[in-house]
Amino acid sequence: MSFQIPKNAPTFGNPQQRQLEDRLWASSGVTARSRGGPGGGAGGSAGVLGDVQDRVGGFLNPNRASLPMYKDKPYAYAPSGRARPVYRRKRVLGLITLVVLGLLWYTGAFADHHAAAVGKFNQWGWLTADSKAKGAKADWDKRRKLVVDAMELSWDAYERYAWGYDEFHPVTKSGRHMAPKGLGWIIIDSLDTLMLMNLTSRLTHAREWLSTSLTWDQDQDVNTFETTIRMLGGLLSAHYLSTEFPNLAAITDDGPNMPGEDLYLEKAKDLADRLMAAFDSPSGIPYASVNLAQFKGIISHDDLGASSTAETTTLQLEFKYLAKLTGEKDFWDKAEKVMELVDNNGVKDGLVPIYIYATTGEFRGENIRLGSRGDSYYEYLIKQYLQTNKQEAVYQDMWREALQGVRKHLVTYTEPSHFTIIGERQSGLDGDLTPKMDHLVCFMPGTVALAATGGLTEQEARKLPTWSKQDEADMQLARELMQTCWGMYKYMATGLAAEITYFHIADPPLPESAPHQAPADFDPLPDAEWHKDFDVKPQDSHNLQRPETVESLFYMWRITGDMRYRDWGWEMFKSFMNYTAVEEGGGFSSLNNANVVPPVLRDNMESFWLAETLKYFYLLFSPDDLLPLDKVVLNTEAHPLPRFDMGKLFKTGWERKPRDKEGKLVTQPKTE
Ligand code: DMJ
């Protein structure tokens, strides 16, 4: 389970510089006060609000020391240095502007909102300065360092304005808890990114919060899936990286026999013990939520009590690795049982409806999609197969069946330019195909390529005796889907994809076998033919800083070695920097509308911006020996976990029931 320490992990030449920065922070009063964590004064929602106001009040205080500046990082808005009243007036002005913009939008003034607008509004424009001369070699090391800059800006903004809070609102410079004492939502989700980027002093601060403020003993309902992938996954990967790569963001108190040695693992185990209550349902399918202090599973309040399918089947990598670390088989068995229960429904062609009852273990409804509530079911099939070093054939079998099902029922081509898309069957496989892709579906190109090569490069995998025509076809599908996902970015005014994109398709939809050839390049002209294939509705035009497309670009770059994927990633990174930066050192924000320039900010930074999006940019621009894909498996929140052999303690405790060609269960004749 170990592999080479990356040769190219970044180091900081001048640690004193960082300490100096930290002292400046402390002198501002903001960080110093908040270092006690949320426990101080945040004992309930009233306390939380009070604390937020306290922070904002502190910021408004004209006597406060000024905050550290980022003059050398032009994509952080230049700090205004103005007094607060102006800031207040600006908020009013901002409100008026928003209303006016809303009216303009409503009246169609932004009807021509395509790429033509890009470039007209680029008030920083610093990244265009990095544009290399035609034919010149790109400096990927420099670009990778810019990603570290972005991580520092985001983290420091959070640290400055919302330290210890679970939500960060970068525009209003405030935070909010999701539990009385906070869950460390942003801090824990960021641990491994801080390690990979070697941000030692920030990691030390995060660990200090974990050891002094974090408690799972809170009377709070939390979402089983989100808490598992972000918190349990974050802690487990922090444990993995800090033990296997002690040189990454090396700190002093976590070595063997040191007081902080097992901090991450202890916190992970405590959390997992509580999350295990989710599996105490009549069927064994986990409940949607858990009350942490009460160790109690809670049925979904919505969807007629059904859990989301993806949520129940995206817990396995985390619980299985924890079982391996602790030797506690129960973690393994409970998580594994879910896969058996799902499979025993015998769905057609491996495609599962997006809801499942924890009470009965049966699916609810027939809505089938690879977007929200469906996505990571498929992702974790192949990743479970890889996690245990390809020893559990059952998961590869399920993945292959599902991918064939995707080809047969969901893949089609757009008009007039023939992009490959994965649509939805909202009324079951006999219903119509809806030509719609959530941004979430863009995990697929990378995952399909990962499944085809097992994490080797395409070149290496092709030499294996097991390499097949199907693998070749899967790589082709991955390339085509990657092109479509990138088109979803190119289509938008900011160069940042919408949450949902619709497509124009033929009636009836073309089958997967139809000849098709999408354009290799995207003509930049606003009236270019390819624009006709795409459609973004105003209500779907938000961008939540999601990672799926850069995640796939990372896999595609590593696996194919095709430079275009890195180049696209760089273009995407520039769009994030140019259009999501928040003034006054606020870091970066989600957008309410990514299809107008200037964009409309949403005043929220998702924790996966730090855990996933920036991490994938960093990995995409890094040398390939940083987290080799044939040695690790990244959970759905981009937390790297090791692959391992099951050993004597663990085995696949179930087999698939016999089924027909379509995957439907074959009932065995009863023997008298
Ligand atoms: C993340 O929490 C995970 O990637 C999850 O699988 C899907 N949604 C977000 C990111 O978009």
TrEMBL record:
One of its GO terms (cellular component) is membrane. GO terms for biological process: carbohydrate metabolic process; ERAD pathway. Belongs to the glycosyl hydrolase 47 family. The chain crosses the membrane at residues 92-111. It comes from Lasiosphaeria miniovina. It catalyses: N(4)-(alpha-D-Man-(1->2)-alpha-D-Man-(1->2)-alpha-D-Man-(1->3)-[alpha-D-Man-(1->3)-[alpha-D-Man-(1->2)-alpha-D-Man-(1->6)]-alpha-D-Man-(1->6)]-beta-D-Man-(1->4)-beta-D-GlcNAc-(1->4)-beta-D-GlcNAc)-L-asparaginyl-[protein] (N-glucan mannose isomer 8A1,2,3B1,3) + 3 H2O = N(4)-(alpha-D-Man-(1->3)-[alpha-D-Man-(1->3)-[alpha-D-Man-(1->6)]-alpha-D-Man-(1->6)]-beta-D-Man-(1->4)-beta-D-GlcNAc-(1->4)-beta-D-GlcNAc)-L-asparaginyl-[protein] (N-glucan mannose isomer 5A1,2) + 3 beta-D-mannose; N(4)-(alpha-D-Man-(1->2)-alpha-D-Man-(1->2)-alpha-D-Man-(1->3)-[alpha-D-Man-(1->2)-alpha-D-Man-(1->3)-[alpha-D-Man-(1->2)-alpha-D-Man-(1->6)]-alpha-D-Man-(1->6)]-beta-D-Man-(1->4)-beta-D-GlcNAc-(1->4)-beta-D-GlcNAc)-L-asparaginyl-[protein] (N-glucan mannose isomer 9A1,2,3B1,2,3) + 4 H2O = N(4)-(alpha-D-Man-(1->3)-[alpha-D-Man-(1->3)-[alpha-D-Man-(1->6)]-alpha-D-Man-(1->6)]-beta-D-Man-(1->4)-beta-D-GlcNAc-(1->4)-beta-D-GlcNAc)-L-asparaginyl-[protein] (N-glucan mannose isomer 5A1,2) + 4 beta-D-mannose. Ca(2+) binds at T636. PANTHER family: ENDOPLASMIC RETICULUM MANNOSYL-OLIGOSACCHARIDE 1,2-ALPHA-MANNOSIDASE, MANNOSYL-OLIGOSACCHARIDE ALPHA-1,2-MANNOSIDASE-RELATED. The active site is at E226 (proton donor), D375, E499 (proton donor), E548. It holds the Pfam family Glyco_hydro_47. InterPro entries: 6hp_glycosidase-like_sf, Glyco_hydro_47, Glycosyl_Hydrolase_47, Seven-hairpin_glycosidases. This is alpha-1,2-Mannosidase.
